[in-house]
UniProtKB/TrEMBL annotation, chains A, B:
Pfam families: DctP (PF03480). Residues 1-30 form the signal peptide. It comes from the Bacteria. One of its GO terms (biological process) is transmembrane transport. NCBIfam families: TRAP_S1 (NF037995). One of its GO terms (molecular function) is metal ion binding. It comes from Vibrio astriarenae. This is ABC transporter substrate-binding protein.
Length: 365, 365
């Protein structure tokens, strides 16, 4: 390393300004201003993993900027509008948000596609689609008209299919099944006769215990352990509906445009790294928590939905997606981009990860 | 966002200094110096994916620092010592390096463990071990005595088992097999009677074509395509020996200590992000290139080593590792850390990624 005693252009400019101003206020230095941004997150205070991600992002931004970029995080107890994040960032009430894109599908249907799709890509397949397969550009088309920029905001890893009180052995077993499963996946299940419901998180445990509902999905062991569902439901089904749930950072475009170039770069890299870090952390937490569940509740049974059920779910999924695509040209374009990317990348995942995991599991026997 | 017209402490200090110095040289501002670091990479110029990673890291560092952190990259054509990177960074001839930890095992045996181990963790399992499972701390113990800091430097994704001229149906088929496979994996194969050789990359194609060797491993489709092996070898075996090959950034500790805190943070995040990005890029490139190979050479057959061969390889691997552990307490500690982490995380990978990939592949039929 050589220490070159020579300043970059913007510093030289500042020096000249200071020389002219003598002891003038430091506020004359546009680049040395402290930028204070406010971020609204959908989650409550100290929410595990998700909340760690916003803190990680803000800490990186502060450290890398030498304190010039300060991001204050308001959890839902503060702003009282967990599902108002889109609107609050759009209006400029908040500069940034941390949430999930598919929460906004009632408002802007095409936001559905940027979290995770049933039978879709796995986490790194989806990162590859975002960053190398055209996904970021499509997301920009959806968010730009709303004065918003959207970025990947952290991955939960593959979500589990959920906790069930009874086994699902056939498509008929889904008839009348009362399950807490929100969003598009709930619509898919409803197509097969299930009764998806939405229940506040605080009431989930009791609802499942008292059989007010027959099943529920939450996330995966990383967040399920503390909810305690393993104590009251015997079956843990593997996932199909959210193989790569990616949270979202939102940035108000006017806020973005006011930032100097170096802070733009810092903010963008901090968001990207915090997102990747959350995937790593989710892997760790799910590994650790699943080990705990298996040790303390060895009777919990992991189940796969039978092929006939998976086929029926997939047909219902494809039917609903087709309806969306017929109504909206951009929806069609996004669906086609995702389908063709998956078709390209999955054969590689099969000869790499799938072959390796199967080979190692075979050797364990 | 609120623009607070108030400077952070370091800036106020600079202003005072300037006021005192009047038109004094900008070099008085310690924090505004341009730090020029030199990085030596093991790869040649414009090496795909690996070389993109150093460029990506340097670009992020420059942009985030507003030009105050400049990293010059020298490829192997410049420094002429692809496997001298460890020594050149240790001595301070270079500030940084980009290479792979296991290249240094002849010099420092415990560097072996920080790239990828046969039958070991997958890429994100390994990131979880590095960042949440004690891996970074163990790596520091190995590198610190050499005046070096080591960081993850980008993942190739699961490496393929290699291109073979003949099928491997039994352990006997490995007897006398001439295969280009360097490093520890080569030692494992040698235990079973194979003849591992090392051949310069430029001679690999001809060696395989003329059957001077029977097989070779390189990386995976991301880098194999341009080598052309699919044109001359009919069998592409799935991986066992490097399930998560992670490259390495090296930093000279004296260089590190001279950097101001904000540039330390910028450099560390730039390295981490470039590493994650390389994994995403590798996924993309392998997906794309494997699609090309399958289309243009549909007769290439993907093969798994039979279970008996895998078991024999694993036994040989375990035997060699045990020998290392008996000689070196830190080697034993690292091996135990990796084994216990894998034991914790793999059951989760099996009920998430493995179950999902198998379910989806089943549905494709």
């Amino acid at each position: 390393m050589s220490f070159i005693h020579q300043s970059v252009k913007r510093v030289v400019t500042s020096v000249v300004v200071t020389a002219v101003c003598a002891l003038g206020s430091a506020s004359a230095f546009a680049d040395d201003k402290v930028y204070r941004l406010k971020l609204a997150e959908t989650w409550g205070p100290n929410f595990p993993v998700f909340g760690d991600t916003t803190k990680n992002m803000a800490k990186m931004a502060e450290e890398m900027s030498g304190g010039r970029l300060q991001i204050r995080i308001d959890s839902s107890n503060k702003h009282k509008a967990p599902f108002g994040v889109f609107d609050m960032v759009k209006s400029g009430q908040y500069d940034m948000g941390h949430s999930a894109s598919y929460y906004w599908k009632g408002k802007v249907p095409n936001t559905l596609y940027f979290t995770s799709m049933p039978f879709g890509m796995l986490p790194v397949e989806q990162y590859a689609w975002f960053y190398y397969g055209g996904g970021m550009e499509l997301m920009e088309q959806v968010y730009s008209p709303h004065n918003l920029m959207s970025f990947p905001g952290g991955n939960t890893d593959v979500q589990m299919g959920g906790w069930f009180q009874k086994e699902i052995n056939s498509v008929e077993d889904l008839q009348g099944l009362k399950m807490r499963i929100p969003g598009f996946a709930g619509e898919v299940l409803a197509e097969l006769g299930a009764k998806p419901t939405n229940i506040a998180p605080g009431e989930l445990y009791t609802s499942l215990e008292r059989r007010t509902i027959d099943a529920l999905e939450w996330v995966g062991p990383s967040l399920d352990l503390r909810m305690g569902f393993h104590k009251i439901a015997p079956y843990y089904y593997t996932g199909w509906h959210e193989p790569a749930t990616e949270l979202q950072f939102l940035v108000n475009k006017r806020t973005w445009e006011k930032l100097p170039d170096d802070l733009k770069a810092i903010l963008q890299v901090a968001m990207k790294t915090a997102a990747y870090d959350m995937y790593t952390q989710s892997k760790h937490e799910s590994g650790k928590n699943w080990a705990t569940i298996k040790t303390e509740y060895p009777n919990v049974q992991v189940k796969n939905f039978p092929p006939a059920v998976m086929s029926a779910l997939r047909e219902a999924n494809d039917r609903l997606l087709k309806e969306h695509a017929e109504k909206d040209a951009l929806a069609k374009e996004i669906q086609e981009s995702q389908a063709s990317y998956l078709e390209q990348v999955r054969p590689w995942s099969n000869i790499s990860h799938r072959a390796y995991l199967n080979g190692q599991a075979e050797a364990e026997k």
